[in-house]
Amino acid sequence: MTTGSSSTGTATGPTRIAVLLAAYNGCEWIEEQLASILAQARASVDIYISVDPSTDGTEALCARLAERHANIAVLPPGGPFKGASRNFFRLIKDVDLSAYDYVAFSDQDDVWYADKLDRAVTTLRRSDADGYSSNVVAFWDDGRRLLVNKAQPQVRWDYLFEAAGPGCTYVLTRRLASAFKSLLLRQWDEVQRVDLHDWFCYAYARSHHYSWIIDPTPGLDYRQHARNQVGVNNGVASARSRLRKITDGWWFSQIQLTATLLDIHSPYRILDGDSTKAKEWIKLAFSVAHCRRRPRDRAMLFAICLLNSITRHQ
Questions:
Q1: Are both 198 and 289 inside the same structural domain?
Q2: DSSP 3-state assignment of 124?
Q3: Domain span including residue 143
Q4: Beta strand 171-173 with 131-134: parallel, antiparallel or unpaired?
Q5: Please, which residues have CB within 8 angstroms of residue 51's CB and are 6 or more apart in sequence?
Q6: Residue 217 lies in a domain
Q7: pLDDT of 85-142, one tens digit each?
Q8: Whether pLDDT at 4 is above 60
Q9: pTM of the entire structure?
């Protein structure tokens, strides 16, 4: 694939970045998203798109865009994936990442700031880190805008309980991306049960001793609409939805799955829902400062663990 003309110069040539974009029924927004990626300052990008079978013509639109831009490629049909996580795993598996210095994840409906990739690469190089994410600015059709702050200091076990911010901000070095790809290939069938690729990627990086930077400066406008698979935790309805995922066991089952697949020997590996003993819930309740970055998330986890110690113990 031919890359764009602008690039970040290095001693060995231009910095090359593979952008992996998972799409599904995205005709309304994807062209604006792609335009913002193609307009990145001081970055040479190739964009790879995987489309989950759609009903709004997303496949045809992406094909037309790929015909117009030499650095956009649409992968052959491979779905249905039934979720962004499995679509991103497919992209990581099927795209040859070996020619790239960095790999970035992209949603189909955001708007990247012109310096997003340049800032990420500069930050990674300056800090000698392998993983990068950043804050975002959520926006709605009615004009509302909200800074989404995920850049609280990382704690010992946060990666087992949460992502490093929205996956659309992730940029990985080739070293980390290649290692993560190897893990996916080894455990391909098992990782299909993982529902959030960004959380799992962050957990892999941190648990395998890769350094990760969460940048407080936002790198994109994060579009909010009714079809967001994962959106901003803002408002009563969103809070209820996320609380339901915790209380119905989904969240703890994903923690258990992540710990198992990544062989994470944490003090909280045995959190498997109804079979967890009361003393383990209490232990977690009084360890929340080591498990979540944000104070309100710690408070919620503390309350849920105490409740589970009463209602779910054997």
A1: no
A2: helix
A3: 9-223
A4: antiparallel
A5: 23, 24, 58, 59, 62, 74, 75, 77, 79
A6: yes
A7: 999 999 999 999 999 999 999 999 999 999 999 999 999 999 999 999 999 999 999 9
A8: no
A9: 0.91
